[in-house]
Amino acid sequence: MGRLIVISNRVSVPSAAGAAGAQGGLAVALNSALREHGGIWFGWSGQETEEFTGHLDMQRNEGVTTATIDLEAQDVEEYYNGYANRTLWPLFHYRIDLTEYDRNFGEGYERVNERFADSVYPLIADDDLVWVHDYHLLPLGSILRRKGIKNRIGLFLHTPWPPTRLLASLPFHERLVASMLEYDVIGLQTTEWLESFLHYVQKEMGLTVNLDNSIDYQGRRVIARAFPIGIDYAEFSEAAKSDVAKEAHQRLRDSVRGRKILIGVDRLDYSKGLGERFESFSRFLSDHPDMAGKAVLLQIAPPSRGDVESYQQIREDLERKTGHINGAHANVDFVPIRYVNRGYPRAELAGFYRAANVGLVTPLRDGMNLVAKEYVAAQDPEDPGVLILSQFAGAATQLKDALLVNPHSVEHVAETISRALDMPLKERKRRHAALLASVKEMDVLHWLKQYVLALSGVEKGSGALKSDGGPSSADPELAAQEESATLGATEIAGSH
Ligand code: GDG
C-alpha cells in the first residue's frame, strides 16, 4: 500500500518535549494516525507571507513528516477567518444566526483550495492514499481530480453535517456538495450526520443512494460512511499515569480543600455551550443550598479563532457571566467557577480530569467531542468520576452510559449535576466500565484502520494514472528536503 498523504488546514506536531498547549481534536487525532501509519502531513504553517510563494517547508518531527506552506494575509482573512470560520463552521453547527455570506470569502476559499492543490500535487505518488480533512478543504479533492490525480482520495469531516434546509441557505451550496462527490470516500462522524448528508444529495441533487449508502454520480461511485473518531487511548492512559499527571491531580485536589470538582475543557467556542453550562452550575448551586461552598467548576477554555468577532463576543459574554455567578455565590474563601483562558500540557490535563468528580461536556452541537473520551480514559476505575454528556455531541451515540443531557435546559443539567455528585460508587463503576470499554475499543487507531481500509478498498480512479510518476522520485528537490527533514521545533498550534 502507498503512503498516506494527510491534508488539513493546519499542521501541528508535538515537539519532543510533548504538547505544551492547546491542540484541537483534529490535530491530536492526526498526529496519532500518522505516527502509526507513516506518510506526509500537508497544510498551512499558520504563518503569513506578503505574497504566496508555494514554498514547501518539509520537516520530520517525532516520527511524522510534515510539509507546510505559508499563506497571504488576504488568504487568511477570506479563507480561514472568512469562509471556513464565519460561514461554514457556524452553519455546520446549526448557528445560521452567526453565519456570514460574503462573496469575497467564497472566492478566497476557492483560491486557497487551489493553492493547496498546486502545492501538494508534486508530493503525491501514484499509489498514495490521499486523505483530506475537514470543512476548510471540501472542494480540494475535485481540484486535485481536475489536475489529473487518479489516486484514491477521501474526505473526513470532523464537524456535524447540517440539516438540508439549513444548508440550502448557503449560496452555491449545490456546487460545494457536488465538488465533494469527486472524493472516493466521504467520512462523517456519526450516522446522524451521514443521514443528513444523504438526505441532501437525494433531496437537493436528486441523486439515488444505494443500499450500501454509496452514491452514483457522473459515472463514479462515492462511498459515504460514518467513522466515529476516537482518542489515542494508549497514549492518553499512559499520560494519565505519569508523574506530571499525578502532580497536577494532587495540586488541583489540594487547592479545593475537600470540595467536589466539576471539570470542563473546551476550545473557547460558541458551539461548546459554555454559557449554558455556567448557568446550569449556577442553578445547581441555587437549588441546593446544602452544596453552597462545596463544589467547584474548573473550566479550562483556551482561546481560539480570536480574529473572528463571534469568538470575541463569546469571550466577553463568558467573562461577564463568570463574574456575575461568582459574585452571587462566592464567599471569602470560596469561588465557585474557576475560568481559565489558557491551555495545559496533555499530561496535566489528564491529571485534572482524574481529579474531577464530574466531567461536564455539554456542547450545543459537536461532531464527536474527544474531551468526553479523554475524561473517561483518565479516571481511576476503582473510584471513577461521572460523565455528563450533551445529547447533541456525536459522542453521545457511543457513550450511552454517560448521563445524557439537553444542554439547553438549565434545569435538566442542574438536576443531573446533583445526581452525578450523589451517585453511589457501584453505579459509577458500572457506568465507567461500560464507557471505558467503548473508548478503548473505538480508539483513534480503530478509526484510522477503518477509514484506510475503506479508502484502499476503493477501485482506483478510472483513466490514465499521473504521467509524471509522483513525488519524491519525481521531484529531486522535494525528495532531498524530505530526506533531510530535521527534528525541528515545530510550534504547537490548534489545527482549527
Ligand atoms: C473538532 C470537532 C471532533 C483542549 N484544551 C486543551 C487541550 N484540548 C484538546 C482536548 C481535545 C481537543 O483539544 C478538543 O477536541 P474536541 O473533539 O473536544 O473538539 P474540537 O477541537 O472542536 O475538535 C469535534 C474533533 O474535531 C475530532 O474529530 O471531535 O467535534 O469540533 O483533545 O484535550 N489540549 C491541551 N491543553 C488544553 O488546554 N494539551
Proportion of beta-strand residues? 15-25%
**First and last CA, distance:** 30 Å
Helix content: 40-55%
Largest sheet: 9 strands, mixed
Mean pLDDT across the residues is: 90
- What is the 3D form? globular
Rg calc: 23 Å
Task: Give the key terms.
496 residues, alpha/beta, 6-stranded parallel beta sheet, 18 helices, binds GDP-alpha-D-glucose
Descriptive report:
With 496 residues, this protein is an alpha/beta fold. The protein contains 18 helices and 15 strands. It has a nine-stranded mixed sheet, sandwiched between helices. The chain has a six-stranded parallel sheet with strand order 12-11-10-13-14-15, sandwiched between helices. A hairpin with a 2-residue loop joins strand 8 and strand 9. Helix 9 packs across helix 12 and helix 12 packs across helix 13. The radius of gyration is 23 Å and the shape is globular. The relative contact order is 0.15. GDP-alpha-D-glucose (GDG) binds next to helix 1, helix 12 and helix 13.
